[in-house]
Specification:
CATH architecture: Orthogonal Bundle
Order of helices and strands: HHHHH
Number of strands: 0
Number of domains: 1
Oligomer: single chain
Shape: elongated
CATH class: Mainly Alpha
Distance between the termini: 73 Å
Strand content: under 5%
Number of helices: 5
Radius of gyration: 23 Å
CATH topology: Helix Hairpins
Largest sheet: none
Length: about 130
């Protein structure tokens, strides 16, 4: 049993990172911490795909004329694309956090919601007074 766990340590790392990222996203109210949690979750998915794409003893698929075991390069290529998309998404998310900070004066989710409720209550009061 211990050999099975040790043989698949990379999957245990994936599970740990995935759960850690999900926990950060769900438990934190700070928008920057939520973005960091999403990035941790995203890294776990990268590791999962790369782990599945690697074959023990496999080489790069370069034909040499001798029969060999090849690793599929497609997961690695897809992950490179996903990394680029992830960096762009993170940059967009951080830019939105900057705009939210300018508009609301905070990046804490609870404070933003409280501010929205106060604005809605003021608008309702103004509508009733008309």
């Amino acid at each position: 049993m211990l050999d099975l766990i040790a043989a698949h340590y990379n999957y245990w790392i994936v599970i740990f990172l995935m759960m850690a990222g999900l926990y950060v996203v769900v438990s934190r109210g700070n928008l920057v911490k939520k973005i960091v949690g999403l990035n941790i979750f995203q890294v776990s998915v990268f590791l999962l795909y790369i782990s599945m794409g690697k074959i023990s003893g496999g080489t790069a698929p370069i034909l040499t004329g001798e029969p060999e075991t090849y690793s599929n390069p497609l997961p690695h290529v897809l992950i490179l694309t996903a990394i680029v998309v992830g960096v762009a998404t993170t940059a967009l998310g951080l830019a939105l956090v900057v705009r939210v900070r300018e508009a609301y004066g905070s990046i804490e989710e609870d404070e933003i919601q409280a501010d929205n409720r106060a604005v809605e209550a003021a608008e309702d009061e103004e509508a009733r007074s008309r």
